[in-house]
Amino acid sequence: MKQVTSILIGAGLRGGYVYSQYALDHPDEFKVVAVAEPDQERRELFAAKHNIPKELQYESYEELLQQDKIADCAMICTQDKMHYEPVTMALQKGYHVLCEKPMSPNKDEIVKMGAMAKKYNRILSVCHVLRYSPFFSKIKEILDEERIGRMMSIQHIEEVGYWHHAHSFVRGNWRNKEESSPMILQKCCHDMDIMLWLADSKCKKISSFGELTYFTEENAPVNAPRYCMDGCEHRDKCPFYAPRFYLEHPKAVEDGLVYAVTDQADSEHVLEELKKGPYGRCVFHSDNTVVDHQTVDIEFENQVTASFLMTAFTNQCARRIRIMGTKGELKGDMEAGTIEIIDFVSGTNDLIQLHTPSKGHSGSDMNMMREFVRMVGEGKTGKTDASVSVASHLMALAAEEARIRKTVIDFEEYSAYETK
Prior knowledge:
CATH class of the largest domain: Alpha Beta
Strand content: 15-25%
CATH superfamily of the largest domain: Dihydrodipicolinate Reductase, domain 2
Shape: globular
Number of helices: 17
Radius of gyration: 22 Å
Structural class: alpha/beta
Number of domains: 3
CATH topology of the largest domain: Dihydrodipicolinate Reductase, domain 2
Helix content: 25-40%
């Protein structure tokens, strides 16, 4: 296979540090040849890592996509509400596209992007990376082999983690649903997609409950300042004290979260940014509007029922699943890499231990990039093309509408215009 070339639009954490890492690890297979990023320091640091000349460094995606096509594909890693225009421009220009999830918080834009990929016969692969994880790939294989008989029920939980929720959904870029997207779409479209994939059926009905309960002004401790570094007297008892997390918590460094605070992650730069930057705010004095706990119940057309729980109030950032079948039961822990199968007939327990890397969604990120590069290089389709992703995105939006309206959504009716 020839080397696949790409442009990058948005050199933040996912684009600049995760997906593009595949080019550094596999230079014979993949190369990033141009970048568009409004932050000059971030743009120049990325360009230096990938040896991108000055003339191929752009401040805006419009500048880059107005040029003649210069690569095989485009990685679109901008913020949630900023995907539609660069994705459609790239497809029209002739690029295959890798789009960070969610595609868009706008129902019409999601459907139009899927239709445009089909119209121009381009690959539009959405970063539903969990389909590429060893964990969920193995579960899919077990289900297809009918080792637990006919599937009847799914119970799935996403433990966001108190520290991750505070970083991304209270202080960070995804804190405000009006500026980005609802929590069930931004964080949990992964999970809607996985349940859709495992159930192997279309969604029939969906309902949801959830609220922003804890991370609000009324729960702020007495005399808590707006910024952690403004002499907070609760610092030793607060699990969300920003300087302690960004300088001491292993996940801040291991998962690169500190680079959201500053591109120069030494203590001097971190503390300076936390004084008045968004990541130094008290979690009770922010402008966050996304829920901090939510449940979703789903009925699929094949009569499989699914229950999903998202919560901020856990120690680990983890996904756990139980699947109940007519001949057995499956229990899985993604981060631990364990799958237990209980056979109703023999009464035996089969414990499967997978190799799951600690980073990158348990190895999913690089598996997805490997598959995307292969798809572009060989002209093949993969697990997460746009037609599949449109359905799971609409499930997430239907769940949010059900939560707000406190009703049950008929999914066929909700998504009917998609096929018009």
